[in-house]
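## retry 2 of 3
previous attempt timed out at serialization; input unchanged, resubmitting
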Amino acid sequence: MTVNLRNHKSASSLMVFWVGLLLLTAALYAPALRFGFIWDDPVWFGRVVGKSLGELIAPLPEYHFYRPGTLLINRLFMRTGGVFDALPMHAFQIAVHLLNVALVARLCRALRLGRMLARGTALLFALYPLAHQAVVWAAPQQSWVTCFMLLTAWLYLKARRRSSARLLFAALVAYGAAIAVQESAVQLLPWLFFIEWRERGSWRGLWRSPALLLFLPVTLAYLLFWIQAPKYEGVTTLALEPEVLWYLLQGLVFPLVGRVCGFPAAVQ
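## retry succeeded, writing output
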């Protein structure tokens, strides 16, 4: 009876934390519902006006990215006469951010991270100040692509552990949706290899993994297609720039410092 009561209290406190976090996040972003359109929003959304579904899926000559998923999502909010309403679009951004918070928590638990580490990670993700622009502005796709990437990783983990072809196919579909929304989703592929290594405990047999046999060909096919899509010089181009390399190297600061100084046991 004591053990059951203790477990009930623990589950209740956990529920209070997650509900409270989602409500707090929603309250902090709620003022965005009063925001209108800004800057080049008419250009972003105007690209879908008068276009058929086939035209939205194919590369657009006047669009310097290949993001058919983004165009299709924008198309969902277009009203009769090519008119857009800012309110539902801002509400959608906030809803996707809240969904991402829940997915971060689920993925942390699926990775068997500690309860406190999972809570802290979700808390940082939910309230991270630099995410503000991506959530309160109607046009950015960062929250959308993040949602599909988190869903991909979570489904991939479940598919690996259950040996489920259906879940693996669902993960592949989510990954396809992610790269269709924004090309930055290709960075998820190394993390799928990391998940494989984590689940196997070694790199042995990796050549038979779904990450290599399914996700790698899809990634390469997308990149080959993306290279051929129209690009605006000075906005999107293929080049090896030292500034970009330095920018990417910032991501190595934390693991390198941790290797030298050591990580707390709970973080490893």
